[in-house]
C-alpha cells in the first residue's frame, strides 16, 4: 500500500512570491535542502515535462547516511504540473541501489491565499518505504521553514 505524508505551514508572503521561489533555480538551491544538508542543482528545465536534478549533501554524513552515496542523496525531479499561484506537482526519483528507495514519489505543493500570506501544503504520495515517515515529515517541515525565511519580508 502506498504511503502519503503531508505537512503544511502558513508563510507570510503572497502566493506570487512563494510560487516564484518554487520555480527559480537559485531559490530552490537556497531553501529546499532541509537542515543539515546543502543542495546543488545540476540540470534545470522549469516547464511542464521539464525538471531538475539535485544533489543533496549531508553536512555530517555520520548523522544520516545518504541514499546515493555515503554523504549524498541525488534526486531527479520532473515537473508534472505547474498551475501558477496554485500548485506545483513534482515527480521525484532517488538515485539509489537500495530497492527500498525505488519508485516515483509525487510531491504536490499547494498554495492558498491566507490573509496577507500563503498557506502551503506539501503532500507526498507513493513515498518509498526506505524513507521513514517522521524523518520525511521533519525534512519537509524544515524545507517549509527555510522557504518562509527565504520569501518573508520583515514587518
TrEMBL record:
- Record-annotated Activator of Hsp90 ATPase homologue 1/2-like C-terminal domain positions: 12-152
**Domain of life assignment:** Bacteria
Q: By what name is this protein known?
A: Uncharacterized protein YndB with AHSA1/START domain
Recorded hits in Pfam families, A to Z, give: AHSA1
UniProt family annotation: Belongs to the AHA1 family.
Origin species, per record, is Streptomyces clavifer
Amino acid at each position: 500500500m502506498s504511503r502519503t505524508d503531508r505537512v503544511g505551514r502558513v508563510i507570510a508572503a503572497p502566493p506570487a512570491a512563494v510560487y516564484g521561489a518554487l520555480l527559480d533555480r537559485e531559490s530552490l538551491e537556497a531553501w529546499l535542502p532541509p537542515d543539515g544538508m546543502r543542495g546543488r542543482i545540476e540540470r534545470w528545465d522549469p516547464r511542464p515535462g521539464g525538471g531538475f536534478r539535485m544533489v543533496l549533501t549531508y553536512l555530517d554524513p555520520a548523522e544520516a547516511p545518504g541514499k546515493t552515496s555515503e554523504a549524498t542523496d541525488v534526486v531527479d525531479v520532473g515537473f508534472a504540473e505547474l498551475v501558477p499561484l496554485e500548485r506545483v506537482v513534482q515527480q521525484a526519483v532517488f538515485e539509489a541501489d537500495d530497492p527500498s528507495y525505488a519508485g516515483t514519489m509525487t510531491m504536490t505543493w499547494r498554495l492558498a491565499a491566507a490573509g496577507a500570506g500563503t498557506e502551503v501544503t506539501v503532500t507526498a504520495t507513493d513515498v518509498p518505504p526506505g524513507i521513514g515517515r517522521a524523518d520525511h515529515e521533519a525534512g519537509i517541515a524544515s524545507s517549509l521553514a527555510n522557504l518562509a525565511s527565504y520569501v518573508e519580508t520583515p514587518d
